[in-house]
Amino acid sequence: SCFRLLCSLLIPALFLSGILCVCLVVLLWGIRLWIQQRKKQLTSAGKDGKRPLLVAFFHPYCNAGGGGERVLWCAIRTLQKKYRNVTCVVYTGDRDVTGEEIVEGAFRRFNIKLIHPVKFVFLEKRYLVEASLYPHFTLLGQSLGSVFLGWEALLKCVPDIYIDSMGYAFTLPLFKYLGGCHVGCYVHYPTISTDMLSVVRNQDTRFNNAAFITNNPLFSKFKLVYYYFFAFMYGLVGSCSDVIMVNSSWTLNHILSLWRAGACTSVVYPPCDVQTFLDIPLEEEKSTTEYSIVSVSQFRPEKDHPLQIRAFAKLLKEKRLGQQPSLKLILIGGCRNQQDEERVNNLKHLCEELGVSNNVMFRINVPFEELKRHLAEATIGLHTMWNEHFGIGVVECMAAGTVILAHNSGGPKLDIVVPYEGHITGFLAENEDNYAETMAYILSLSPEKRLEIRENARRSVHRFSDQHFEETFLLSVEPLFK
After folding, report:
1. Residue 422, helix vs strand vs coil
2. Pairing of strands 243-246, 182-187
3. pLDDT for 17
4. Separation CA 212–CA 190 (nearest Å)
5. Percent over 90 (pLDDT), the chain
6. Which of 194, 258, 399, 422 is the most buried (most CB within 10 A)?
7. What is the pLDDT of residue 207?
8. Contact (CB, 8 A) for 220 and 203
9. Residue 401 and residue 391: Cα distance in Å, rounded?
């Protein structure tokens, strides 16, 4: 009787599940057909009577002015050079500026001039991917939010080729299966990584792993289960991509382990404007009365500016014991929103607490020429982000002729600050003491020895040029145009 009861419940349940699955497939197919119909209505033929190929980049913060934006504008310029019948579209949430102002900003900040106009699709629901909206389950919240933002983008413009250039992998199946697009992505940083899983597993306190979780074994176990579930989902959506480009060996290792799509994955180093920085004459330092240490990175929590300020304060404390040249730390970076501006104010308070306000300078959203000038005058280029995916700022510092001191992890460790032809190209550090000691060591070197390191570093950065990016990018995206 028990078996009969089970059968009487199970068979209708399976039948109902089957009907629901069929209904879902029919609904999704109907939506896809409706979107294709909408695409025909929204697009018009070009001057030659042919409909242009629409290549859309999903980049909600395209006006942010960071390394990811440099990749976006270089990618667009590269496609415009190669394909004549292509119209590039950018999905953006920057509604406080016009398209012309965004393009002008790209030229001013990155020295990138586009060949043809770009079509901007302004999105209204960008707040759905803001981390501040999700105080808990931030990764899941932002990823689900990106699906809704992606849906808004798809309804406003249906492209032929879709490229996620900002790390919103959950939009890929949406554009592939409902939009009927060829899809590709450029991954700067995996949304979740095996390193993040180990941080939670080992109960380490980090900016993305609060102390109240690390101190509670139950919370840590729950967060670990949540991270593993998210990693599984992330792997599922990422594997939908027809073409996967990653920016470094570090990102490649993580994406291969999570997405398991090695056949369509390749490393495309981001374009660094090395030539412009290489034009700065490399001379032996003239001034011995003042040394400047420059950091170039957006004011985001993971960039760990507090570590720079603390290490610099420690260096100053030790330097004051003897008669030494004066030192100043210049923090150059972009602010994307109010949270970034608040972060800068907190950093200024930290400088006051440590008594180094007079020696630390903040330069926010500076024009390209000013960035170049600061780097030309600097002795040390500073970088402190743990597991930086690549590190365009690191390459720029090396090309400009500073002695680089970067974090001993991620892209800087594996791809950038590596010996070149057997010679040292820079230094790596991990904590406050390391950084302070290494800065002191670099400043203690003779100008001749520093010049030798700067020359080696310069020679090593040619592999990160715009030209190299263009070649590898075109090679990678070619399957999307077939």
Report:
1. coil
2. parallel
3. 85
4. 25
5. 63
6. 399
7. 44
8. yes
9. 16
61 three-class SS? coil
Phi-psi region of 461 (alpha: psi -120 to 50; beta: other; left: phi over 0): alpha
280 Rama class: left (phi>0) / alpha (psi -120 to 50) / beta:
beta
And the tokens for 84?
């004549």
Task: Report yes or no on whether pTM surpasses 0.85.
Answer: no
Question: How many Cα atoms within 13 Å fall on the side-chain side of residue 414?
Answer: 17
Task: Split the chain (482 residues) into runs of 10 and give each run's mean pLDDT.
Answer: 71 82 85 79 65 94 88 96 94 94 91 93 96 89 96 95 96 95 95 77 55 66 87 95 95 93 94 86 73 92 95 87 75 87 95 95 90 92 92 91 95 94 95 95 92 94 91 96 90
Residue 381 neighbours by CB distance under 10 Å: 27
Cα separation, 60 vs 148, whole angstroms? 13
Q: What's the pLDDT score for residue 214?
A: 58
Q: What is the pLDDT of residues 363-421, one digit of tens each?
A: 998 888 899 999 999 999 999 998 888 888 899 899 999 999 999 999 999 999 999 99
How far apart are alpha carbons 126 and 144 in whole angstroms? 12
Q: What is the per-residue burial (b if ≥16 Cβ within 10 Å, else e) of 444-463?
A: eeeeeebbebbebbbebbee
Query: How far from 97 is each of 63, 88, 94, 255, 322, CA to CA, in Å?
Result: 9, 19, 6, 34, 51
User: Which pair of tokens denotes residue 462?
Assistant: 């040619």
Give helix 338-354 / helix 305-319 axis angle, nearest 10°: 20
DSSP conformation class of 43? -
Amino acid 120 reads F
Number of Cβ within a 10 Å radius of residue 361: 15
**d(C-alpha 177, C-alpha 38), whole Å:** 15
Count of H-run helices and E-run strands, the chain: 18, 13
Residue type, 330: I
Q: What is the pLDDT of residue 64?
A: 86
What was the pLDDT predicted at 286? 63
The side-by-side arrangement of strands in the sheet containing 427-429 is 360-364, 326-333, 290-296, 380-382, 403-407, 427-429
On average, the pLDDT of the chain sits at 89
- For residue 363, the tally of other CB atoms under 10 A from its CB is 14
List the structure tokens of 478.
């070619």
261, two tokens: 């799509």
Q: Which residues pair with 183 in a beta bridge?
A: 162
SS3 call for 176: helix
